[in-house]
Specification:
It is a single chain. 57% of the residues lie in helices and 0% in strands. The chain is built from three helices and no strands.
């Protein structure tokens, strides 16, 4: 399952993301964060962390733009 999720994110990064305007306010980007979280914590907790991070990705979030996987 972990490999499938990572391949989906890599597909997104290669084929869908270049068609969009760069908009991620965090470093590393949300997709890179998702890959790192899934690799480190597995598919369930990694997906949870990635979704939580994506929900914070808006201009009104008052957090630090540097947000690595912990």
């Amino acid at each position: 399952m972990k490999t499938i999720l990572i391949n989906i994110i890599r597909f997104y990064r290669k084929y869908i993301s270049p068609m969009k305007q760069p908009s991620c306010r965090f470093y590393p980007t949300c997709s890179q964060y998702a890959i790192e979280a899934i690799e480190k914590y597995g598919s369930i907790k990694g997906t949870y962390l990635a979704v939580r991070r994506i929900l914070k990705c808006h201009p009104y979030h008052k957090g630090d733009p540097y947000d690595p996987v912990k």
